[in-house]
Design a protein that fits this description.
Helix 4 runs parallel beside helix 5, helix 4 packs across helix 7 and helix 9 packs parallel to helix 11. The strands form three sheets. A seven-stranded mixed β-sheet has the order 2-8-7-6-5-3-4, sandwiched between helices. It has a three-stranded antiparallel β-sheet with strand order 9-10-12, with helices on one face. The mean pLDDT is 96. The longest helix is centred in the C-terminal third of the chain and has 24 residues. The protein folds into two domains: 114 residues, Aspartate Aminotransferase, domain 1; 200 residues, Aspartate Aminotransferase, domain 2 (3-Layer(aba) Sandwich). By secondary structure, the protein is of the alpha/beta class. Helix 5 links the parallel strand 3 and strand 4. 37% of the residues lie in helices and 14% in strands. The chain starts with 10 loop residues before the first helix and ends with a helix. Bound molecules: pyridoxal-5'-phosphate (PLP). The site of pyridoxal-5'-phosphate has 12 residues, from helix 4.
Protein backbone atom coordinates (compact mmCIF):
# COMPACT_ATOMS: atom_id res chain seq x y z
CA UNK A 1 0.00 0.00 0.00
CA UNK A 2 1.16 3.52 -0.80
CA UNK A 3 0.79 5.25 2.58
CA UNK A 4 0.77 9.08 2.55
CA UNK A 5 3.98 10.24 4.23
CA UNK A 6 2.35 12.99 6.34
CA UNK A 7 -0.87 13.96 8.06
CA UNK A 8 -3.39 16.48 6.57
CA UNK A 9 -4.86 16.24 3.02
CA UNK A 10 -7.20 13.40 4.11
CA UNK A 11 -8.28 12.51 0.57
CA UNK A 12 -4.90 10.77 0.14
CA UNK A 13 -5.59 8.44 3.03
CA UNK A 14 -9.11 7.61 1.84
CA UNK A 15 -7.66 6.86 -1.61
CA UNK A 16 -4.91 4.67 -0.14
CA UNK A 17 -7.46 2.75 1.96
CA UNK A 18 -9.84 2.52 -1.00
CA UNK A 19 -12.66 4.02 1.08
CA UNK A 20 -15.22 6.61 -0.01
CA UNK A 21 -14.50 9.93 1.71
CA UNK A 22 -17.48 10.99 3.89
CA UNK A 23 -18.73 14.50 3.17
CA UNK A 24 -18.39 15.46 6.84
CA UNK A 25 -14.94 14.79 8.16
CA UNK A 26 -12.86 15.63 11.16
CA UNK A 27 -9.14 15.73 10.46
CA UNK A 28 -7.12 14.79 13.54
CA UNK A 29 -4.04 13.90 11.52
CA UNK A 30 -2.43 17.39 11.52
CA UNK A 31 -1.33 18.92 14.82
CA UNK A 32 -2.61 22.44 14.31
CA UNK A 33 -3.89 24.74 17.07
CA UNK A 34 -7.64 24.03 17.34
CA UNK A 35 -8.30 27.68 18.22
CA UNK A 36 -7.33 28.66 14.67
CA UNK A 37 -5.14 31.66 13.74
CA UNK A 38 -4.97 34.63 16.16
CA UNK A 39 -7.65 37.28 15.58
CA UNK A 40 -5.00 39.90 14.75
CA UNK A 41 -4.16 37.99 11.54
CA UNK A 42 -7.75 38.16 10.36
CA UNK A 43 -7.94 41.85 11.30
CA UNK A 44 -4.82 42.60 9.24
CA UNK A 45 -5.63 40.41 6.27
CA UNK A 46 -6.59 43.21 3.90
CA UNK A 47 -3.36 45.06 4.73
CA UNK A 48 -1.46 41.94 3.66
CA UNK A 49 -3.36 42.00 0.39
CA UNK A 50 -2.15 45.49 -0.46
CA UNK A 51 1.46 44.22 -0.12
CA UNK A 52 1.26 41.25 -2.45
CA UNK A 53 2.28 43.31 -5.47
CA UNK A 54 5.75 43.82 -3.95
CA UNK A 55 8.63 41.36 -3.73
CA UNK A 56 9.24 40.19 -0.17
CA UNK A 57 12.44 41.11 1.63
CA UNK A 58 14.70 38.12 0.79
CA UNK A 59 16.41 38.54 4.18
CA UNK A 60 13.10 38.80 6.13
CA UNK A 61 15.04 41.39 8.16
CA UNK A 62 12.11 42.86 10.07
CA UNK A 63 10.98 39.44 11.29
CA UNK A 64 14.54 38.30 12.00
CA UNK A 65 15.14 41.39 14.13
CA UNK A 66 12.01 40.74 16.16
CA UNK A 67 12.88 37.08 16.73
CA UNK A 68 16.43 38.05 17.74
CA UNK A 69 15.19 40.67 20.15
CA UNK A 70 12.66 38.29 21.68
CA UNK A 71 15.30 35.59 22.12
CA UNK A 72 18.00 38.08 23.17
CA UNK A 73 20.47 36.90 20.56
CA UNK A 74 22.29 38.43 17.59
CA UNK A 75 20.25 38.85 14.45
CA UNK A 76 22.87 36.81 12.55
CA UNK A 77 21.91 33.78 14.62
CA UNK A 78 18.38 33.77 13.18
CA UNK A 79 17.38 32.31 9.86
CA UNK A 80 13.79 32.43 8.62
CA UNK A 81 12.48 29.61 6.42
CA UNK A 82 9.51 28.67 4.28
CA UNK A 83 8.24 26.49 7.12
CA UNK A 84 10.38 24.38 9.40
CA UNK A 85 10.30 21.86 6.56
CA UNK A 86 12.43 24.05 4.30
CA UNK A 87 15.03 24.50 7.03
CA UNK A 88 15.19 20.73 7.54
CA UNK A 89 15.91 20.18 3.86
CA UNK A 90 18.61 22.88 3.95
CA UNK A 91 20.11 21.14 6.99
CA UNK A 92 20.19 17.91 5.00
CA UNK A 93 22.32 19.69 2.43
CA UNK A 94 24.51 21.18 5.18
CA UNK A 95 25.19 17.66 6.52
CA UNK A 96 25.66 16.16 3.03
CA UNK A 97 27.67 12.94 3.09
CA UNK A 98 28.04 12.98 6.87
CA UNK A 99 27.07 10.31 9.36
CA UNK A 100 23.88 11.46 11.08
CA UNK A 101 22.01 10.00 14.05
CA UNK A 102 18.21 10.12 14.10
CA UNK A 103 16.21 9.22 17.20
CA UNK A 104 13.16 7.22 16.12
CA UNK A 105 10.20 7.25 16.06
CA UNK A 106 10.17 10.84 14.86
CA UNK A 107 9.27 13.28 12.09
CA UNK A 108 10.13 11.69 8.75
CA UNK A 109 11.62 14.76 7.05
CA UNK A 110 15.00 14.45 8.81
CA UNK A 111 15.59 11.09 7.21
CA UNK A 112 14.28 12.26 3.83
CA UNK A 113 16.56 15.34 3.83
CA UNK A 114 19.58 13.31 4.93
CA UNK A 115 18.96 10.57 2.38
CA UNK A 116 18.57 13.10 -0.43
CA UNK A 117 22.05 14.37 0.44
CA UNK A 118 23.85 11.06 0.68
CA UNK A 119 24.18 11.02 4.47
CA UNK A 120 24.92 7.80 6.23
CA UNK A 121 22.07 7.41 8.71
CA UNK A 122 22.34 5.76 12.11
CA UNK A 123 19.18 5.15 14.15
CA UNK A 124 18.47 4.89 17.81
CA UNK A 125 15.01 3.53 18.62
CA UNK A 126 13.13 4.61 21.72
CA UNK A 127 11.30 1.83 23.52
CA UNK A 128 7.65 2.28 24.44
CA UNK A 129 8.47 4.29 27.55
CA UNK A 130 9.40 6.83 24.79
CA UNK A 131 12.25 8.11 26.97
CA UNK A 132 15.74 8.98 25.85
CA UNK A 133 18.67 7.04 27.29
CA UNK A 134 21.75 9.22 26.69
CA UNK A 135 24.19 6.46 27.61
CA UNK A 136 22.96 4.32 24.75
CA UNK A 137 23.42 6.90 22.00
CA UNK A 138 26.18 5.97 19.50
CA UNK A 139 27.50 9.55 19.45
CA UNK A 140 31.12 8.53 18.88
CA UNK A 141 30.09 7.36 15.42
CA UNK A 142 28.34 10.47 14.14
CA UNK A 143 28.91 14.10 13.12
CA UNK A 144 25.37 15.32 13.69
CA UNK A 145 22.12 14.23 15.23
CA UNK A 146 18.43 15.15 14.96
CA UNK A 147 16.13 15.06 17.94
CA UNK A 148 12.57 16.31 18.09
CA UNK A 149 11.48 17.91 21.38
CA UNK A 150 8.54 17.72 22.10
CA UNK A 151 8.78 14.61 20.02
CA UNK A 152 6.45 14.04 17.11
CA UNK A 153 4.62 11.55 17.13
CA UNK A 154 4.66 10.73 20.87
CA UNK A 155 4.15 14.23 22.34
CA UNK A 156 6.80 13.34 24.95
CA UNK A 157 9.05 16.17 26.14
CA UNK A 158 12.69 15.64 27.08
CA UNK A 159 13.80 17.75 30.03
CA UNK A 160 16.02 20.83 29.89
CA UNK A 161 18.63 18.99 31.98
CA UNK A 162 18.67 16.09 29.54
CA UNK A 163 19.07 18.44 26.56
CA UNK A 164 21.92 20.23 28.30
CA UNK A 165 23.65 16.91 29.01
CA UNK A 166 23.14 15.89 25.39
CA UNK A 167 24.54 19.20 24.12
CA UNK A 168 27.67 18.53 26.22
CA UNK A 169 28.07 14.99 24.91
CA UNK A 170 27.68 16.19 21.31
CA UNK A 171 30.18 19.00 21.85
CA UNK A 172 32.78 16.60 23.30
CA UNK A 173 32.39 14.48 20.18
CA UNK A 174 32.37 17.44 17.80
CA UNK A 175 28.85 16.70 16.62
CA UNK A 176 26.05 19.09 15.74
CA UNK A 177 22.85 18.68 17.72
CA UNK A 178 19.69 19.75 15.88
CA UNK A 179 16.75 20.03 18.25
CA UNK A 180 13.51 20.40 16.36
CA UNK A 181 11.29 22.45 18.65
CA UNK A 182 8.39 22.74 16.18
CA UNK A 183 5.94 22.24 19.08
CA UNK A 184 7.89 24.01 21.86
CA UNK A 185 5.23 26.67 22.31
CA UNK A 186 2.56 24.05 23.18
CA UNK A 187 4.71 22.77 26.06
CA UNK A 188 3.53 24.67 29.13
CA UNK A 189 6.68 24.11 31.21
CA UNK A 190 9.19 24.61 28.37
CA UNK A 191 12.50 26.07 29.52
CA UNK A 192 14.37 27.79 26.71
CA UNK A 193 17.64 26.31 25.49
CA UNK A 194 18.61 29.55 23.77
CA UNK A 195 20.86 30.71 26.66
CA UNK A 196 23.04 27.59 26.32
CA UNK A 197 23.83 28.41 22.69
CA UNK A 198 26.47 30.87 23.82
CA UNK A 199 28.59 27.98 25.12
CA UNK A 200 27.33 25.36 22.70
CA UNK A 201 27.78 26.57 19.16
CA UNK A 202 27.03 22.99 18.03
CA UNK A 203 23.36 23.36 19.09
CA UNK A 204 20.82 24.31 16.41
CA UNK A 205 17.21 25.03 17.42
CA UNK A 206 14.51 24.68 14.81
CA UNK A 207 11.05 26.14 15.27
CA UNK A 208 7.84 26.23 13.32
CA UNK A 209 5.24 28.98 13.46
CA UNK A 210 2.66 27.04 11.50
CA UNK A 211 1.34 24.89 14.34
CA UNK A 212 0.72 27.28 17.24
CA UNK A 213 -0.58 30.03 14.96
CA UNK A 214 -2.54 27.66 12.70
CA UNK A 215 -0.98 28.95 9.46
CA UNK A 216 0.34 25.75 7.79
CA UNK A 217 -0.59 27.07 4.38
CA UNK A 218 1.40 30.29 4.81
CA UNK A 219 4.61 28.33 5.63
CA UNK A 220 6.86 29.88 8.29
CA UNK A 221 9.61 28.64 10.55
CA UNK A 222 12.98 29.74 11.85
CA UNK A 223 16.31 28.36 12.93
CA UNK A 224 18.48 29.64 15.77
CA UNK A 225 22.10 28.67 15.23
CA UNK A 226 25.61 30.04 15.21
CA UNK A 227 26.35 32.60 12.55
CA UNK A 228 28.55 30.29 10.48
CA UNK A 229 25.72 27.80 10.14
CA UNK A 230 23.02 30.37 9.30
CA UNK A 231 25.30 31.99 6.69
CA UNK A 232 25.95 28.66 4.98
CA UNK A 233 22.29 27.64 5.02
CA UNK A 234 21.29 31.02 3.69
CA UNK A 235 23.61 30.50 0.73
CA UNK A 236 21.60 27.35 -0.12
CA UNK A 237 18.18 28.96 0.27
CA UNK A 238 16.40 30.20 -2.82
CA UNK A 239 15.93 33.94 -3.09
CA UNK A 240 12.51 35.24 -1.81
CA UNK A 241 11.84 31.82 -0.35
CA UNK A 242 9.68 33.20 2.47
CA UNK A 243 6.68 35.08 1.13
CA UNK A 244 5.76 38.60 2.23
CA UNK A 245 2.46 37.60 3.86
CA UNK A 246 4.22 35.00 5.99
CA UNK A 247 6.78 37.61 7.08
CA UNK A 248 4.07 40.09 8.09
CA UNK A 249 2.01 37.37 9.77
CA UNK A 250 5.07 36.18 11.68
CA UNK A 251 5.69 39.67 13.05
CA UNK A 252 2.14 39.80 14.35
CA UNK A 253 2.22 36.27 15.77
CA UNK A 254 5.38 36.95 17.75
CA UNK A 255 3.40 39.40 19.86
CA UNK A 256 0.59 36.95 20.57
CA UNK A 257 1.62 35.91 24.08
CA UNK A 258 -1.87 35.87 25.52
CA UNK A 259 -3.07 33.76 22.57
CA UNK A 260 -0.36 31.21 23.46
CA UNK A 261 -1.48 31.25 27.09
CA UNK A 262 -5.10 30.79 26.08
CA UNK A 263 -4.03 27.86 23.88
CA UNK A 264 -2.12 26.24 26.77
CA UNK A 265 -5.12 26.51 28.97
CA UNK A 266 -7.46 25.05 26.35
CA UNK A 267 -5.19 22.17 25.33
CA UNK A 268 -4.37 21.22 28.91
CA UNK A 269 -8.04 21.08 29.86
CA UNK A 270 -8.93 18.98 26.79
CA UNK A 271 -5.90 16.72 27.16
CA UNK A 272 -6.72 15.91 30.78
CA UNK A 273 -10.35 15.29 29.94
CA UNK A 274 -9.50 13.08 26.94
CA UNK A 275 -6.79 11.11 28.70
CA UNK A 276 -8.93 10.26 31.68
CA UNK A 277 -11.75 9.09 29.38
CA UNK A 278 -9.45 7.07 27.12
CA UNK A 279 -7.69 5.32 30.01
CA UNK A 280 -11.03 4.51 31.60
CA UNK A 281 -12.15 2.92 28.31
CA UNK A 282 -9.03 0.75 28.21
CA UNK A 283 -6.97 2.53 25.52
CA UNK A 284 -3.20 2.93 25.87
CA UNK A 285 -1.83 6.40 25.24
CA UNK A 286 1.55 8.10 25.20
CA UNK A 287 1.79 10.49 28.19
CA UNK A 288 2.01 13.53 25.97
CA UNK A 289 2.56 17.04 27.33
CA UNK A 290 1.55 18.70 24.10
CA UNK A 291 -1.28 18.95 21.56
CA UNK A 292 -1.17 15.40 20.13
CA UNK A 293 -0.70 11.87 21.42
CA UNK A 294 -0.38 8.26 20.39
CA UNK A 295 -3.20 5.83 21.08
CA UNK A 296 -3.69 2.08 20.73
CA UNK A 297 -6.35 -0.46 21.49
CA UNK A 298 -4.22 -3.00 23.35
CA UNK A 299 -6.22 -6.06 22.21
CA UNK A 300 -4.93 -5.80 18.63
CA UNK A 301 -1.31 -5.55 17.47
CA UNK A 302 -1.86 -3.64 14.21
CA UNK A 303 -4.26 -0.73 14.70
CA UNK A 304 -5.43 -0.96 11.09
CA UNK A 305 -8.96 -2.20 11.98
CA UNK A 306 -9.44 0.74 14.36
CA UNK A 307 -8.03 3.13 11.73
CA UNK A 308 -10.43 1.74 9.13
CA UNK A 309 -13.39 2.03 11.52
CA UNK A 310 -12.60 5.67 12.38
CA UNK A 311 -12.14 6.66 8.73
CA UNK A 312 -15.57 5.21 7.99
CA UNK A 313 -16.96 7.45 10.72
CA UNK A 314 -15.29 10.48 9.06
CA UNK A 315 -12.63 10.69 11.77
CA UNK A 316 -9.11 10.93 10.37
CA UNK A 317 -6.25 9.94 12.69
CA UNK A 318 -2.61 9.90 11.53
CA UNK A 319 -1.47 6.40 10.57
CA UNK A 320 1.99 5.41 11.86
CA UNK A 321 2.99 3.00 9.09
CA UNK A 322 5.93 5.19 8.07
CA UNK A 323 7.23 5.92 11.57
CA UNK A 324 10.11 3.46 12.03
CA UNK A 325 9.63 1.84 15.42
CA UNK A 326 5.81 2.15 15.31
CA UNK A 327 4.82 0.50 12.00
CA UNK A 328 1.08 0.81 12.54
CA UNK A 329 1.00 -0.38 16.16
CA UNK A 330 -0.25 3.06 17.24
CA UNK A 331 -2.37 5.89 15.83
CA UNK A 332 -1.67 9.58 16.39
CA UNK A 333 -4.41 12.09 17.22
CA UNK A 334 -4.36 15.87 17.42
CA UNK A 335 -6.22 17.48 20.31
CA UNK A 336 -8.98 19.54 18.77
CA UNK A 337 -11.94 21.57 20.00
CA UNK A 338 -14.15 20.23 22.74
CA UNK A 339 -16.99 19.17 20.46
CA UNK A 340 -14.60 17.37 18.10
CA UNK A 341 -12.89 15.60 20.98
CA UNK A 342 -16.32 14.55 22.22
CA UNK A 343 -17.11 13.12 18.80
CA UNK A 344 -13.89 11.10 18.91
CA UNK A 345 -14.69 9.81 22.41
CA UNK A 346 -18.16 8.77 21.29
CA UNK A 347 -16.77 6.83 18.30
CA UNK A 348 -14.10 5.17 20.44
CA UNK A 349 -16.63 4.17 23.06
CA UNK A 350 -18.71 2.49 20.36
CA UNK A 351 -15.58 0.70 19.14
CA UNK A 352 -15.00 -0.87 22.55
CA UNK A 353 -18.49 -2.46 22.56
C1 LIG B 1 8.35 17.87 14.22
C2 LIG B 1 8.09 18.74 13.05
N1 LIG B 1 9.05 19.56 12.61
C3 LIG B 1 8.87 20.37 11.57
C4 LIG B 1 7.68 20.36 10.89
C5 LIG B 1 7.51 21.28 9.71
O1 LIG B 1 6.69 22.32 10.05
P1 LIG B 1 6.34 23.50 9.05
O2 LIG B 1 4.87 23.45 8.86
O3 LIG B 1 6.80 24.74 9.76
O4 LIG B 1 7.10 23.27 7.80
C6 LIG B 1 6.65 19.52 11.28
C7 LIG B 1 5.37 19.48 10.55
O5 LIG B 1 4.52 18.67 10.76
C8 LIG B 1 6.85 18.68 12.40
O6 LIG B 1 5.91 17.86 12.84
Amino acid sequence: MNWPSHGANPHYIYEAMNLPMPEKRMDLSANINPLGPPKALRDNWMNFFTDIGEYPDPEATSLKKRIASKEKIEEEMVMVGNGGAELISLLGRFFAGKRVLIIQPTFSEYEKACRANGCDIVYEFLDESWQLNLERLPLHEVEAMFLCNPNNPTGICFSYEQMLALAKLCKERNAYLVIDEAFFDFWESYQSLVPIMENFSNVLLLRSMTKMFAIPSLRLGYLLANEKVTRKLKSYQSHWSVNGIAIRAGEICLQEESFIEQTHHYIKKERERLFSFLKEEGFEISPSETNFYLLRWPHIESQLPLFHYLLEQGIVPRHTMNFPGLEGRWLRFAIKREEENDQLCKALKEWTR
